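Data card: per-record layout.
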Amino acid sequence: NGSDGGGRFTPDLEDDFVDRDAAAARARDRDDELRATAFHTHAVAGTGPTLRERVAFYIDSSAVGRGWRLLDFVLNAVLLVSYINLTVIGPSNIPMFYHQVDAMLTAALLVQWLPMQWLSLVPDTSLTPFELFSWIAILPVLAAYMLRLAEPSYWGTILDAGNFAYLYPFRFWRFHLTLLRVVRPG
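The structure for this 186-residue chain is written out next.
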């Protein structure tokens, strides 16, 4: 270490790197201690994290989870566009193709959402608002599509889903909650 001649301290660059290496080594040691403590805790209790807990932790702490939430958001946004398209076309002119696309998108949303629910570490006995709006947004669309298949006279009207059509706007609530999950930091 030296001085610039004016009495001010000027650290050598080499010392700065040594300190950073030492700090990194201390951080690694602390992480190793935490891992050992966690392992010891599970070993003493005779249990370890379950597969569900390990996968949930990995997904919550990696880019995979962020991508999964983004996929959920995109599917929900496309469902909103589909809903708006179905209402703009007019009740008597809706081609069957749009109903099929709507049902397939909803099925895709269900298929990607169910594993997310299985991995959720929220107790199974509680029903969060996101889960409630997800069920209300998904099930009526699929049920209405099944009714249309069973009774072809329903095709061609905006209310061809019967009373289920009144639940379709819940897609907007689910979209809102999905958007919050995507833009929330962490």
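Known properties of this structure: DSSP finds six helices and two strands in the chain. Helices lie at 13-45, 51-60, 63-89, 96-119, 129-150, 170-183.

See the next section for split statistics.
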